[in-house]
Amino acid sequence: MKKINWGIIGCGDVTEIKSGPAFNKVKNSALVAVMRRDAEKAKDYAERHNVPKWYSDANSLINDPDVNAIYVATPPSSHEEYTLAALNAGKPVYVEKPMSVNASSAAVMANAAKDAKQKLVVAHYRRAQPLYQKIKQLLADKVIGDTRFIKLELYKRSVSDEEMANPGRAWRVDNDIAGGGLFNDLSPHQLDLMYYFFGEADKISGFALNQAGLYNADDIVAGSILFQSGVLFSGVWCFTINNRDEKESCEIVGDKGKIVFSFFEHKPVLVTVNGETESFTFEPLQHVQQPMIEKIVDYFLDKGPNPCSGEEGVKVMTMIDKFTAK
Prior knowledge:
Elements (H helix, E strand, L loop, with lengths): L3 E6 L3 H4 L12 E7 L3 H10 L4 E3 L2 H5 L6 E4 L6 H10 L4 E3 L7 H14 L3 E3 L7 H11 L6 E11 L3 H4 L2 H4 L4 H4 L3 H17 L2 E9 L10 E8 L4 E10 L5 E8 L2 E5 L7 E5 L2 E5 L9 H11 L9 H15 L2
Parallel strand pairs: 1-2, 1-4, 2-3, 4-5, 5-6, 7-10
Antiparallel strand pairs: 7-11, 8-9, 9-10, 11-12, 12-13, 13-14
Helix pairs in contact: 4-5, 5-12, 10-12
């Protein structure tokens, strides 16, 4: 294999800017086919993005001889089905986050890749972005000394009636499709980076409930992790806050200082040591998944390591499950 010719299953909103165009901008990579159950929408996407082929049936795309790698970008409830189908067809897979609806399903996917001797990557794409690479380096260099604890807060307003009436938005708070609520949609980015920065967890616990009753999924989650290194993590996610009280922040505290940054807002990384604060700024990325896709293409072409394995994806899903267990 000298070039990765991608087929996308589920060419919805996430693929419009975040990922889709990047497949044609990465060396030795091309987007050659897309699939969506709505044939008109699949055709429209292909025409707008100059993709040669489009399908309304996933198996037809998977078995297209011109496609040698699959990107699964559907809602989580179908990740396992399409991933297994692609692996069984002998094609490597890049699957969106969350990896699946729960850790058990994610483990089936990871084991299937191992059994099929095929490559599987999970879309925890922030790992590859310069901002988070910088934070990882700051931690490795012990700029703030030995890390003691992490405090994460994500408070967002309630989902509006208009959003609940839009199927393209409402599925994110449907347990049957998303595996949970907005916590399941957003926290994988955050929890994966905690794993990426601090390694294996020793103990994980949490609470989750539906306080407002606006939909059938939990709308508030609190969780704690004790990492094997002795670092403590605590996080609170609330999705029914007044607009004026919205907040999104992560603070990593060491014995010499702290690092403060955002996951979802374009803000500088602030590093404070001995009362002096240094700011690191990064240009916004046109396609946020492009750095990750570059690493995936190298991995699929046997030119680099797996940037986020199925086994690592299972660990993140395990954190989510333990935070939300009843």
